[in-house]
Amino acid sequence: MKTMMAKMPMQRRMMIYFAVPLLIIQIVIAASCYPALLVRFRKQMDYLLGQSINQAVSFLESYIHNMEYLTQLVENNGQIYGVLTAEQFMGEKRPDEQYMEFYMLNRTFNSLEFSNSLYRFGLYISDDIAYVNNNYFIFPQSRLEERNDHARMKEYFASGRDYLVLSEERKDIGSRDMSKMLTLYHQILNSSTEEIVGICSISIDMDRIVQVMENANITSRGLVYLVNAEGEGIVSSNETLFQELREWDSFPLKGEEISGQSVKMGRTTYYADRKDIENTGWQMVSLIPAREYDGQYRSMVLLAVISVVIMAFTIMMVSYFLSNYYVGRLKKLGLQMKHLQDGNLNVQLPSIQQGDEIEEVYRNFNFMVGEVRRLLKEEFQLGKDVRVAELRALQAQINPHFLYNTLDLINWIAMDYGAEDIEKIAWNLARFYRLSLNRGQNLISIGEEAEHVQVYVNIQKFHYDDAVHLEVDIPEELKSLACLNIILQPFVENAILHGIGERTEISQCSIAIRVQKQGDNILFTVKDDGPGMTQRQMEEAETLDISQIKGGYGVKNINFRIKLCFGEEYGVRYESVLGEGTTAFILIPAMTMEEAEKKIM
Fold first, then answer.
1. What is the pTM of this model?
2. Dihedral Cα 157, 160, 165, 171, nearest 10 deg
């Protein structure tokens, strides 16, 4: 054996020495790891199947919860409830009074549906109302009474529950075309008399529910379907397969929750999962063909065999290239030495730090060549870094001017086309960023700070349909005094966002800013009529750990900035009454721009 190996070329011997041990190790590892990998793969498949149906159930529950929320939104809407519970609602009314009722209901439902475009709204009221045949938002109650499931609906209402069912409802906003929908019916009661004054319906296109079930079906011949509270299979991810399988007596419908239970229908065995849909009595069932499920393991075995073959081939190829590399390196060494002997001083021998005699001979030469190349590379990189720094500095100067010029251009184009709203927004936005950036300075005059707040509010007025009102009271002699940049706008922003921005019941937002001089100080007062703050919230806003500051111009950061620049006796404090509003008091020293620059620089 040794004699035979000694007669082999060096490259072939290196291949054998490298490849054979690796192949043996690969076979041993594959044989020992495959069973554990198979068990882990089965657990992953079980988890994946369980997660797919759990996620589908969560999606459906989310839709139903949203529908329940929207029924409460309708019932608690003051305009709808006021019309339905009015004493004259069922009595004789003039045509103009009927029209006003219809107009108010139609406008309110149109607004609700526009804000929740995924869902369709409906209201069922007495057939005696003149405008009951609107058939867009308002329908006659007789339409419900004509349904085959009306008795079941009454049972649900009698027990105080909403009624969830498939029905034919409007498909799209602004259309009367009908489509199969998942609908939740809810009784609206007069809180004083406990009488039923109407039934509202919230619907969602059944295609969305089917899509959820199709996404949950991760096999080509699997099936996901819904079972209602009465144990009826009503809709599925594959209607043809659904109709085919439901003929079997073993077809799983309503029952206890199950996971991975084997069910045989004809010659096909399925793994069944059944999950409850919260608070509905409905269930979602998933059927996975056992052949497809178990086929995953056969594919894994085939994949393992292919992987072993590929790895063996890869080891052989790597062995070949490595041996060829080392043998070729020796050949290259001899060739480069021949060139050197011929007088070629530009040759460079590879230095791989293996410490052999040949490398020792050329080490000093290679070191000098390497040093020259390193110095040239550093010189090039230094010049490149300088150019990048210059480019970034130029960009930092250009970008703000580009922003201002672009906004000015939009302003002028809007003026040319008579688009006054766009003109105003562009002008205010340009002015807002000019004052915000302030040429990189921390100081600004009180007059400019007030203007900064004003242009911000001007922009927000467009966002909130002119529902934000700002009143600014600044004596003329105080406008030229200095203050820190952006110390008023965050309070105004908070008043808008936590008031009209978050609470639908708030339709107007009024903010008053007053500036007055108190001795050697300036006191800013920012008062709003929003929801107010609790005592704890005020304490948290006034006391802030400096280690929590992460930059930005939030209201919590303003107190820190003022104290850092002017001292602990200055800063922000609050007064607030829940439901009535909040007042922020900002105290800074009265200084000219020159005095302020000397103090904080």
1. 0.48
2. 90
